[in-house]
Amino acid sequence: MGRGELEEICDRYLSRREEQQKVTEAVERCLRKGYDYDKMKDRVLEAIADSHRAHKVISAICIAYPQFRKRTKFEENKDDSKRRKKEHSHRDRSRERSRAKDKEKEKESERERRRRDEVNKKELEKEKEKEKLKNLAKELYQKKLEEEEAKRNVVVTEETLRAKELMYKAQQEIEERKRQLGLAAASQTLIGVAAVPPLTAKNVALRPQEAQMFIQASMNKKSRVDELKAKLAKATSTINSLVRPNAPVMAPLPDIAPGILKEREEEPEDELLEFVDPRIVARPAERKRKMFNFHEKGEFEQLANKQRAVAKLERLQAEISQAAKSTGISSAVKLAMITPAGKSSDEVPEIEWWDSIVLECDSYDDIPGTDVESRFKDTISELVEHPIKLRAPTDPLTPQYLKVYLTARERKKIRRQNRKEMQKERTEMIRIGLAKAPAPKVKISNLMRVLGSDAVQDPTKMEAHVRKQMADRLKKHQQANAERKLTDEQKAVKKTKKISEDTSLAVHVAVYRVKSLLHPSKKFKVEMNAKQLQMTGVILLHKNINLVVVEGGPKQQKFYKNLMLNRIKWEDEVIGQKKDADKDAPGERNHCQLIWEGQVKRRNFRDFTVVTATIEKQARDLLEKHNVAHYWDVAYSTTVLLEGQDSTPV
């Protein structure tokens, strides 16, 4: 069985060359790969569009190639059981191998872990020993440094310096006395066996640091003594002020025991005088004895009267100051107290101060003349000053330009150009591979031209396919229209926005006078149109005067004015009849007149209402509540003036 038999089968059942080539390649591929019946069948069906012919080709191939024949149920079960046994045995062997490998890996990892732990323990012990040796070496080195530092630098404090200073002075005094008495040689024998070697200047010799500190201390003492002397010299004046002029130098001392007195006599007086100033009065330790103090009769009464008088005076002063604050005199009084009293002079000034402000000169002789040209010679010239024009408050801040509207032909041309540009861009994207080419738009009219041979082979199927595409396109179009369609709420908002106008700057008002509003249809039109236009106002019904007041924007007033004066045919109605009468019918004709229209600052009515009044005063009071009584006055005056002209002769 070779390629020739396969080509013969394709020539027998297939007419198109492309399908024959596809089927040949698919079958050869199945033979090479060793595919079964099902896979071969799928590939042949993909290559052939007509399913009936494809099944004929598949059956012919199965006859020609036995390996593609469909196996029986018994053969399939037998092969499946063999294959399952092989798979189970292979799976079991692979599992055993994997388990053995896992065990080997676990043992190896355990050995590696133990070896690593032993190495880590040894390294830790070595590191600990090294750390201990380092710490010991550091401690020894630190101790050695501390000992050397202690030997080198002994801490020298102020107390040790004082002790050494005292020892040095004592040694100097002892040496001086020994020289005077000549007992330097015999002093050692008198002391005995436990004699101490003599203290010489060498024994108490100071180190350089100690000598420096000693010099610094002596200098500080000297500077401190100088400061104390300066303070004592400054404080002499204050001390003299505290001392009494005839005071003794020392206060009398109390009686002292003879033993204590001897001790005090032995103490040198120079040291006491150094710290005690004899000029300061020393108070005795004893408490002074109080003497009897007798008061004369009436002394306390006089003191009480004085205190009462002072309190009365303070009270009067408080009342006066309060009255002055309330009348405003206090500020003037304070100003007079602060302002220094000017010295009055008898000299007559060259010009009074009130005239100097007006005349702008220093003397009455310098008053300018009445001639304008000589007086304003510097300011008057032939030049003309043109003042800067101010912007009118009604002008817009930005310049307003008229909108340019294109004609229908121009708009059509622009749309066509835009579509052409978009189509060109889309084609370019498809050409370079950035966008996918759209599917062909198939219709019943172009079915044969687009589908070609497919439509010839199975026209029913292709027609159903085309009708489905047409239905999808229609559904998509209707869905887009439904999405663009406004909801009821959006429609109401759009309508309201179209009707409503901004009346924050000014409100346009119109007042109409109608002879009769008894006709229900005309009355309904007047009321309902005002409400639909969102206008405010009132319909005042009276037997002689029917007044219609409406408030709104300019567009609303334009529409309502056309309604009242043109659209509603008032003259076709005879007063008292519900239906429109003929032109020649007798009776008084109805009439509507625009009395006044203009602008007001704000609305006087909240909504549109219908009000009935029986008498004229009641009608005027109803409008007076809304501050528009003058509308009634205008309507009433025009009615009286035109009373004879409104009626038509019978």
Automatic annotation (TrEMBL):
<dbReference type="InterPro" id="IPR013881">
    <property type="entry name" value="Pre-mRNA_splic_Prp3_dom"/>
</dbReference>
<feature type="domain" description="Pre-mRNA-splicing factor 3">
    <location>
        <begin position="274"/>
        <end position="487"/>
    </location>
</feature>
<dbReference type="InterPro" id="IPR027104">
    <property type="entry name" value="Prp3"/>
</dbReference>
<dbReference type="GO" id="GO:0000398">
    <property type="term" value="P:mRNA splicing, via spliceosome"/>
</dbReference>
<feature type="region of interest" description="Disordered">
    <location>
        <begin position="477"/>
        <end position="498"/>
    </location>
</feature>
<feature type="region of interest" description="Disordered">
    <location>
        <begin position="75"/>
        <end position="119"/>
    </location>
</feature>
<dbReference type="Pfam" id="PF06544">
    <property type="entry name" value="Prp3_C"/>
</dbReference>
<feature type="compositionally biased region" description="Basic and acidic residues">
    <location>
        <begin position="89"/>
        <end position="119"/>
    </location>
</feature>
<dbReference type="InterPro" id="IPR010541">
    <property type="entry name" value="Prp3_C"/>
</dbReference>
<keyword id="KW-0507">mRNA processing</keyword>
<feature type="compositionally biased region" description="Basic and acidic residues">
    <location>
        <begin position="482"/>
        <end position="492"/>
    </location>
</feature>
<protein>
    <submittedName>
        <fullName>Pre-mRNA-splicing factor 3</fullName>
    </submittedName>
</protein>
<dbReference type="GO" id="GO:0046540">
    <property type="term" value="C:U4/U6 x U5 tri-snRNP complex"/>
</dbReference>
<feature type="domain" description="Small nuclear ribonucleoprotein Prp3 C-terminal">
    <location>
        <begin position="510"/>
        <end position="635"/>
    </location>
</feature>
<keyword id="KW-0539">Nucleus</keyword>
<keyword id="KW-0508">mRNA splicing</keyword>
<dbReference type="Pfam" id="PF08572">
    <property type="entry name" value="PRP3"/>
</dbReference>
